[in-house]
Amino acid sequence: MNMIEAINSAMDVAMERDPMVTVLGEDVGYFGGVFRATAGLQKKYGKTRVFDTPITECGIAGVAVGMAAYGLRPVPEIQFADYIYPALDQLVSEAARLRYRSAGEFTAPITVRSPFGGGIFGGQTHSQSPEGIFTHVSGLKTVIPSTPYDAKGLLIAAIEDNDPVIFFEPKRIYNGPFDGHYDRPISPWSKHEGSEVPEGYYTVPLGKAAVRREGGDVTILAYGTMVHVVLGVVNDLGIDAEVIDLRTLLPLDIETIDASVMKTGRCVVVHEATRTSGFGAELAALVQERCFYHLEAPVARVTGFDTPYPHSLEWAYFPGPVRIGKALKRILED
Amino acid sequence: MSDTDRRTNLPPLRLHVPEPPFRPGDPVDYSHMEIPAAGALDRPAVDAPAATMREMPYGLIRVLDGEGRATGPWNPRLEPERLVAMLRNMALTRAFDERMYRAQRQGKTSFYMKSTGEEAVAVAAAEALDRDDMCFPSYRQQGLLIVRGWPLVDMMNQIYSNKADRLKGRQLPVLYSAKEAGFFSISGNLATQMPQAVGWALASAAQGDTRIAATWCGEGSTAEGDFHAAMTFATVYRAPVIVNVVNNQWAISSFAGFAGGDETTFAARALGYGMAGLRVDGNDPLAVYAATDWAAERARTNHGPTLIEHFTYRAEGHSTSDDPAQYRSAEERSAWPLGDPIIRLKQHLIGLGVWDEERHAEMDRELAEQVKAAAKEAEKNGVLGIGLHQPFDTMFEDVFEEMPWHLKEQRAQMRAERESAGI
User: Fold this and answer.
1) Interchain proximity B232–A54, CB inside 8 Å
2) For the domain bounded by B50-379, which CATH number is listed?
3) Residue ranges of chain B with per-residue pLDDT less than 70
4) Catalytic: A126?
5) What positions does the domain Dehydrogenase E1 component occupy (chain B) (predicted)?
6) What is the pLDDT of residues A301-312, one digit of tens each?
7) A112 and A33 in one domain?
8) Do A141 and A284 belong to one domain?
9) Which of A35, A183, B191, B244 has its CA 20 to 30 A from that of B129?
């Protein structure tokens, strides 16, 4: 399965198991979503459980909160993460704090799915990585898969979770992993690890990172598309790196990070999102606070630049193999 | 001729900035306000298509006339006992507001918001809804809780943010949450409850339930995007929901003109969405009851949502932090031509021969005692800032269902801080 099929299968399984699971969003019904993530679900589960919505992200999120208050488990889709900002107030001020402000009387177990990230020539309106905005908010969980297997298991776990979850799907790797070399054809998922996805029910627990490659010289923290780019660089350069796929940014698997950095003594954080106040800053600060006496070099960040995503200069913006490789060499020489 | 040359002959454009009719010191004259006679407006069938009742949002549904007589097709013809109960609940709401306002002035809490003059909007609506219909209120519908019998002491514990506050002292006073009473947790962010109510309503419809939802916002918040998203969703899915807009003329110091009220009525917002819209004399409890009852039946029989504009007047300041004397004429309140909802219902009941001034005075005394006793009870659990608050550890609870490591670490940090400070 590719990642889209895995995500589709996750919703299918979740809907089959729990009649309260309801899918809504722009184009998700009859058409099955612009990325086909919800294809076939309306036909199988009917129009009252899988339905198209007006184009109003604040409405989609607000309605989902109300549906959750009724007792449903809504899975709203925001068609591109770049369009999630009109929904921010409902997600940040409402869904995230409903349990807290009502002392548990009302909860918002919604799972907001949204394709995010660049590398598809989407320009500055179809490429952003807004995860740092959500990890800053108390009460939201933020999940980002990097393989079809994880995407299905994490999404089922997110739908079953009783807290609101922001589920960002790295759309660059929907069809196959991407090693950062934009001039090479995408190799389909079927040829790679993580594409064997069981048909039925299973979960990948939220809050647990995966060690994608064991190594002794440096710890690299990444998620989503960047996991594959990092693995490609490490293999190309022959670096003995430990690559950690965070999978859930919040709650974060700090134990796995601590153990790895204490072992390697070096840490590089890689993400596509802009640098300043990005999630990499949080990771670097945590590693510095917790592993300082084990560090042999300052924690390095490799990120997108603090500009909007430029359409024609996408590959200069993208934190690809050259930028990552340079940072790794520098930190290993320190 | 270039565009620039042609434009030199035109007068400069002007920006229109709305201005309320009266400012502090101005004499008040409401003669510009069109007030249709009670009983003048038709009562459409509850299944009438929205397009056939386009005049409704421009009129004003009124049942009680100037002498307190009930008249016309919207007269709900309620039993006298129900009317007395409604009167009592409005008076209790007012007594509660009075007591809590004074409690704030005495420094027992940080903040309070009265609903004086608007009691009918919440109380009469709650009388017309079923007990298990779900309400998504704004911050001036405490009357819903009063009608549904939510304990006054619980309301006060919330206002005092004390150790018995069910919301663990986390919300500003009056931002209640009472699931048992079908009262959704109130947000301080305006109009966010509107799409949530619609979501609840369409979930109810999708589940084949029989319960409906109702939501309230002020006329000022109809400018929020959430309001329009809610209206779109409500129409598209024919959600069984009642959207109440409480036009009390003032959004803090901004008059209704800044929300578009100078150009049209708020009820007429419904027309663009193809929704039924009713404009109601919000100080007429029988009219509010009748309109809500009509809209509830329409929703319950799958004929879709209704927008009700409650045309009323905010007799007091926006909150205890507000001084309306700074921005509006002091005469506005006394001259308000639609009167006071409690006095109007009282007059009606006296006219029916089932009530009198003595009984009314006795009821007011009794309610004041009831509220006073509840306040004493609540104060035993503490008032804001004197130490009888929730345990400190509760700060970290309910952020997530299960506490993650970073919150556990922060909780430990707080405990250590307090220990080292000897607290």
Assistant:
1) yes
2) 3.40.50.970
3) 1-5
4) yes
5) 88-383
6) 999 999 999 999
7) yes
8) no
9) B191
